[in-house]
Amino acid sequence: MAVLVCISGRVQGVWYRGWTVGQARELGLQGWVRNRTNGTVEALFAGPADRVRQMVEACRQGPAAARVKRIEECSAAVPAEEGFRQLPTA
């Protein structure tokens, strides 16, 4: 299973990407996370459905300084690359 999520709120400048990388790696997920120029954070999570769901739910809270207002989610293709990484802002 793979999902693309767009997280809005106070999610930049609060260690959201670094937190996401750590959480996703702990769950053994593939994918990536990046800041968007519009102030949101975008992430692709791929792996077993229960772990992907767990990660999306964790993103609703995020790290301590974050204030998540909304998460938009849609299906995505499983990435070809192994592991989980942080990408540059797009």
Which terms would index this structure?
single chain, 90 residues, alpha+beta, Alpha-Beta Plaits, 5-stranded mixed beta sheet, 2 helices
Task: Walk me through this protein's architecture.
- This protein is 24% helix and 37% strand.
- It contains 2 helices and 5 strands; from the N terminus they run βαββαββ.
- It has a 5-stranded mixed β-sheet.
Helix and strand layout, with pairings?
Layout: E1 2-10, H1 16-26, E2 30-35, E3 41-46, H2 49-59, E4 67-75, E5 84-86
Parallel strand pairs: 2-5
Antiparallel strand pairs: 1-3, 1-4, 2-3
In CATH terms, what is the fold-level topology?
Answer: Alpha-Beta Plaits
SS summary, helix count: 2
Q: How does CATH name the architecture?
A: 2-Layer Sandwich
List how many beta strands DSSP finds. 5
Q: What is the general shape?
A: globular
Number of structurally distinct domains: 1
- The radius of gyration computed from the alpha-carbon positions, rounded to a whole number of angstroms, is 12 Å
Given the helix and strand composition, which structural class is it? Answer: alpha+beta
Distance from first to last alpha carbon: 24 Å
CATH level-1 class: Alpha Beta
Helix content: 10-25%
For the largest beta sheet, what order do the strands appear in spatially? 4-1-3-2-5
